[in-house]
Design a protein that fits this description.
Radius of gyration: 28 Å
CATH architecture of the domain at 80-158 and 223-348: 3-Layer(aba) Sandwich
Shape: elongated
Order of helices and strands: HHHEHHEHEHHHHHHHEEHEEH
Distance between the termini: 113 Å
Amino acid sequence: MGGTSAKAMTTARIQPRSHECVFTARDLAAIAGAPVAVLLLLAALFHLAAAAGWLPAPRPTLDMDRTLLIHQADSSRSAQDAAVILVGDSSCLMDVSAEDLTRHLGQSALNLGLLSYLDLPSFGILVRNCAHANPERLETVVLLLHPESLRLQTPSAYHRAQLEDYLAGRDARATVGIAGRLQTALGANLARGRLVARLIPTPLSGVYGRFYGFTHDFSRWLRAHRGSAIDPQRFDRTKAQGNAEYRLAQRLESESRLFRQCVPSGVRLVVGLTPVPRSFVGPDHEATCARILEQWAKWLKADAVLDGLPASMPDELFASVTHLTGEGQTLFTQRLAAELQTAAMAWASRPGAIP
C-alpha cells in the first residue's frame, strides 16, 4: 500500500505542462519601445531647449544646502549696501545676526556664510564677487569659522562643484555612477534644476522643516535677515558627537593665501573663531583657540584678530556643538560688534593704515 501511494505521488508531480510561453527581444521591443522612444525624445528636447536658451537658467534649490549656496551666491553678485560682509562656515551663518550687527555698528552688514563642507577659496569667491558687484563700498571682511572646520582635512568636492556650476550657469552635475550618468543623459537633473525647483518647493526635513517650511521659505528667510539664519535645534550634551581636540589642518596654509588674494586692496580682513558649548571642551580650550587663531591670522595676513570673542558659551545657548540658538546669536553678535569696533579703532591708529 505504501509503494502504490508513492508511485501515485510521483506521477502527480511530473504532470506535463499545459502550455509554454516564449518571450523574444522583438516582444520586449514591442512592449517597451514606444515608452522608451518617448523618453528619449523628451530628453533630446530638454537638451535642445537648454542649449538654445529656451529654458530658465539653472537654479537647483532642491534641498536646504543648495538653497543656501544659491542664495548666498546670488547675494554676492548683486548690488548691496553692505560695508561689512561676513563669510565663513555654517557657524558664521547661524551665530551672527547681520541685522543686529548693522544696528550695533551703524554700518550695513551682510552675511554670506556658507557650509563647513566648503574651503576657504570657496568663501573667497563670494568676497571677490561682492567686491566686484559693489565697487568702493566694501570696507571690512569678517572671516569666522568654528574650530571644528579648521581641522577638516578634505572639503566636499560635491558642494564645491554645486557652487561653481551655479556661478558658471551650468546645470548641476548629477551623482556619480551609472545612475548619475543616466540622469544626465535623460535630462533629469536639467529638468529638476531648471523647472521643478522653480515651480515646486521642496519641504525641509525634521526641525528645520517645522521651523522654516519649504526651500522657498528658507530662501525668503535669508533675504529678510540679510543672509543670516537660525538653527532651531537644542543642544543635548548626552548626544553630542566628536571631540574638542581642535587644531589647524595643514591645507589651510595654502588656502589662506588664496583667500587673502580675494580680498581687495584697501579692504580690512578681520578673522575670528565661533564658540563651542562650555561642557564640550576642556579647561585648556581658550588657550588652544588663542594659539590656533594667532597662527591662522599669520597665514591670512589679517589686519585684525578678534581674540576677545568668547571661545565657549553656556550650553543652553547652543542648538548644536557648532551652532548657537537665536538667543545665543543675539549675545554673540553683541560681542562681535564690540570686538569689531575695538579692532577697527586699533587698526585705524596704526601708522600707514588705510582710513
